[in-house]
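Ex. 9. Protein: Histidine kinase.
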Amino acid sequence: MPSIAKKLFVFGFIEILNSVLKYLSLYIYSGGVKLFCLESTILTIFFQTNVFQGLHMNLLIVIKHVVVWCFFDNDKLQQVKEFENKNSINLIGSLFVIALWYVFEADKRKKIKDTYNFKLKARSAHKQLSDLLRVFPDGLIIVNKQNELKFINETLCKILEADCHSIMLRLKTIFTQGSSIDILSLIESLDQTKPARALSLGITDISHVLYEWSANTIEWSNEKCFLITVKDVTTILSIERIESENKSKTALIRSVSHELRTPINGINMILDELFSQSFNEIYEKLSHIKICTGLLNFQIGDILDYSEMSSGNFQVHETECNLKNYLKECADLISVQAKYKGLSLVCKIDELIPDEVIVDGLRVQKVVMNLLNNAIKFTNKGSIELCAINSGLCVDISVKDTGIGIPKQRLSQIFEMFSDKSNSSLSGLGLHISRNILNRLGSTLVVNSVQGEGSIFAFSLNIPNIFPETSSLDYSFEIDIPNECIKTSTLRGISFNTFDINNPKVLIADDHDFNRMCLGQLLESNGIKYIQVVNGDEAVKKVIEFDKMNKPFSCIIMDCNMPVMDGWEATKLITNNFTQGIIKNLPSIIGHTAYSSKEDIQKCYDSGMIGYLLKPTPQEEILAIISKYV
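Predicted structure tokens for Histidine kinase:
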């Protein structure tokens, strides 16, 4: 039966019953009029008014009901006058009843409507949440304490290649890495009494994909349950592994560089000592050894710079330096190789370049050496030219060769590491490092090459106060903290005969016998008395001992990396002893280290050192530092 027909049937049937009740009250049993009216009211309210949803239609039904039972009875039909007197009272009462019903019904229908809308929204939100969880990129499964499956999404079914009926059995076949415990056993061992926080169950390998399983305690369908999430962590673990490997490589490079610098430092110092004592016939060979150690030092510097760039610790040190001398030293170092290959080396250094410019001279020297080394490597005949010109706004530096040249298709690759797939060596390191150094100096390395004719590598340095007249100014101030780059021109002008030889003023703290021997011979040959210790703990004791004897040290050459107590910790203790009044005089402590990273250098200053020397260290730099404090 159609819906409208049902409504009409119910309405008609109730109307018949109401008519029967009214007839009974009028003609059969007038004494039961109140009972009959109550019955009719109940039938009308609970049946007729529920047939129609509209408020106004139901209002008409109520008005009809009130009129029938209030205005048509025996008394009104028999006594017209009394009817007229009672009519006004009945009318007021009827209107009041209708108003009460209207207010009640309107409020009820509003609440019903609000409840209905809320259910619709809740149903829509539930559907949206279900759709979201169903296609969520992580696998989701909800189980109660009895391991009854409450929910599972499609993602987990695809990961495990199982449906909702076989999922629990599938969990028994999955084991975490490095363990013989299956996932289902781990879920069964979970404790619902613990706080609701993420608990990792471990990592599994499913079809060569790594997934991390974790559990949370949640409320699901008024029951305590566990939400198990399955997340693909293959990429994350791969990135973490690569990052860990990079850190290990960086640490290895730093360590290797440090260990290589120490013997080179000793070799250089011994060679410097032998130069003044050797016969003429071996002088040239010693010079060649000196040049080779210098070139090796540049290569070690490239490795360390690459390590610092990879770890984000690379920094430039712009100080006053004689750029012309740095460039001439590059030509001197490369001249032996050029002579051996029968090449002519042309060095054009513009005299208009000021003697003192502010730039990271060591890094510029490293770039030029890399360019000269490449020119020597790929040039078999002809010449190599190093040119530096003061253009008025900057210094233009170039290295030109008559070598084999570079094919056009390779010009975009020469600055990249391992660009030649046929060669796994570090041949690309020099240019790669050089380009990055110049980028940090605000310059760009450009190349022009013709295959079979040669190449030109060039860059420009924007240097403040580049005009030559600025070099004639009298700089009378003195730098309190020595810099890494000591001015070569100033070093060569020092008269070492002015050192006081009557008092031991220098303490050498180094765990390497070779370094202590070389430093000691250097100081002794220049009339400087010294004392040696092998670790930081002995250095602290010697400082206290000699301070109490009223023979304080003026300067300490402190190796940073020593056993028992390193140089940084020893410097802190010496500084604290001075602050606390244990010693009266605080020596000037110079760090001696092969580490040049930003953090290591900062540790020197943080510990209380007034400067540092990088290994390998030329004699001139060591003596120049000592001359400031002895």
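Check your answer against this statement. Residues 76-83, 418-427, 469-502 have pLDDT under 50 and may be disordered.
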